[in-house]
Amino acid sequence: MPFTAAEIANITNSALDHYLDRGTVHKQNIQNKPMLKAFDEASGTFPGGKEFVSLAVKAGQGGLALAGYTHDDVLTYGNPATTKRINFPWREHFIGMGVTHTELKVDGITVTESGANQRTSDKDGREEHALANILEEKLNEMSEDYSVSLDSLIHGDGSADAKALAGIQSLILADPDAGSTGGLSRVTNTWWQNRARTAAGSTVITSAAANGGALLQVLQAEQRQLDRYASNRKSRKFAGSDFIGALELELRANGNYTLNGWQSGAQADGAMPKVSFAGISIEYDPTLDNLGFAKRMYDIDMNAIKLLYMSGEKMKKANPARPHDRFVMFQGMSTTAVMVAKRLNSSAVYDIA
Hints:
Elements lengths: L4 H11 L18 H8 L2 E3 L5 E6 L26 E6 L1 E10 H6 L2 E6 L2 E6 L11 H22 L24 E2 L2 E2 L9 E3 L16 H14 L7 E5 L1 H13 L5 H4 E2 L2 E2 L7 E2 L2 E5 L1 H5 L5 E6 L3 E6 L5 E3 L9 E14 L6 E4 L2
Parallel strand pairs: 1-16, 9-19, 10-14
Antiparallel strand pairs: 2-3, 4-18, 5-6, 7-8, 10-15, 11-12, 13-14, 15-19, 16-18, 17-18
């Protein structure tokens, strides 16, 4: 089969004889992924054997109450039974690529086969004409595609792919008063709801600099509610560009400048340091902008919401043998994971108008 236009372009761009910065391919569109990084760094594991990760949650009260008595009054006994089971299905994911031996030969790379095993090595004199390692670049691109895909899933609600991981929008809802999470009703169990001030819930925040800053005042009031039931809350805040811009405007208008933001040495500096709230940095999340949520912020309790990988199944390499009738090298990765929540009322989502 002849090369496709895309393959020809890839070979040309990677091995052009007179290209600047020999051996370097400058990446142009790799964004930061702070939410993915945060969840991955705090991730845990779970064993296989069941189709769900199951947790127990409860309201915290059993319905009993103190009652006064005297002498031989009849006493009342109750039987607390408030524990509920929640279940989150784990999901399997795969990403893979194929590269022809011909492409590798063009780049000065030879493939040595031993049964199903394929090894690569540079041909003699390769350094005289090759400017970038095609195989290395393809593997790097696959790795970035993996990160972009997982980042997208973590931000999602699971509706884009029913067989893939359901992300933060399936746990922290813009309108949390209806439906269920983990199989547990949020309507019947009102304590099983996240905090929300959003357009979907008709309580969007209108930012304004007057009276100390409308957005700042809302976040201050919400802080108390988020801490209300969580003695061990670990907050991470991720926001789109417009949300952060609104906070910066309110802070500037109310004179909250620091030496870092107002003056540096003998020069006046018009930039502000990164915005934080309650000592927690509000991290700019470019993916929120990509999803149309530039006006949104998630305040996530990382002790309550977790990304879990099945033991031994995170970024598991797959190197299948090539078909007997085609000279193609295959590389792939699989990951089995799930996002779970053991508490929702210590996390929140906010939208500005």
